[in-house]
Amino acid sequence: MSGVGMSVCVTGGSGYLGSWLVKLLLERGYTVKATVLDLGDSSNTDHLKALEGADERLQLFEANLTDEGSFDSAVAGCDGVFHTASPCFLSCADPLVELIEPAVGGTLNVLESCSKVASIRRVVFTSSIAALTTNRKPKGAGVLVDETWFADPEYCKETKQWYVLSKTMAEAASWKFSRENGIDLVVLHPGFIIGPHLQPTPNLSSQFFIDLIKGHGQFPEYRCVDVRDLAYAHIAAFENPLASGRYPVVGEVIMHSEIMELFHGLYPSIAAPSSGLENSNNTYEVSQKRAKSLGISFTPLEVSLKDTVESLKEKKFLTL
Question: Which strand (E) or helix (H) includes residue 270?
Fold first, then answer.
């Protein structure tokens, strides 16, 4: 399907995922209306203006998740909306004010703007795989996480996983609003986003990878997806008339020591894990059935990791 003659909005257009989404949409012929936090900040805008097709078919709008009506002009006249904008950090002083209210209220602000535009045929919303997996269910060998899983808000509160709670509550609010207002909503649940960067400044995931490579911090496992695969999945979820509901989008689940072993193999200067490899057979899997029904082919993890590091080096975020 070609996007020629069609107009779409990307919220959070200057971000890691948003930038790639804008790039691929322009390549497919769409007219793109992207929202950024500050039109006066060149780090929000210059990399988007430099994309092929931007001069003719990219319009930038300033919008803030917490400002009611902020997205009205950006979504006006659009055929579809991709809502990727959301606060993304793992620690904060006031989770309600800093994470939950902007995520939930911001999603409702975007959907409220969409409800005023009769031409919008679908909204594609970016959630998180954590909004499926963060619960008390046992996870290990033989466990398959799919779109029927839901995070447990009470468990999120008990474990102080405020970012996950914000994504979980935002998704629940989006489904309720969409049902009540006749909006065709599709929700994607990506894992940890990796791959090359288009934006000029590090974001949370790139900074985490920089720290990881330097031997600081870790998660028990990584549910990885290449940013290019994820951007394409968003477009497929909009273009495919049969798309509906929730879509986990994860290429591979890998343990910490395994990912460090891969890094070391690609770049010997990155320290190999000090302990023996954990048994990857103990990790759960994330179903790819729904994502593959959209035509998604996942990039091999080694390719994504190498492209991530090379991009971080090129932008001078990382020296090896």
Answer: none
Structure letter (DSSP) for residue 282: G
Q: Which of 137, 167, 292, 306 is catalytic?
A: 167
* Contact between residue 169 and residue 104 where contact means Cβ atoms under 8 Å apart: yes
The CATH class of 7-194+225-250+286-296 is alpha beta
CA distances from 56 to 21, 75, 92, 218 (A): 17, 18, 40, 43
The pTM score is: 0.95
Residue 211 gets which letter from DSSP?
H
- pLDDT digit string (tens) for 12-70? 999 999 999 999 999 999 999 999 999 999 999 999 999 999 999 999 999 999 899 99
Known catalytic residue: 49?
no
| pLDDT, tens digit (0-9, with 9 covering 90-100), for 162-219 | 999 999 999 999 999 999 999 999 999 999 999 999 999 888 888 888 888 888 877 7
Residue with tokens 């600081």: 216
Residue 159 is classified by DSSP as: T
Chain-centroid distance, C-alpha 158: 25
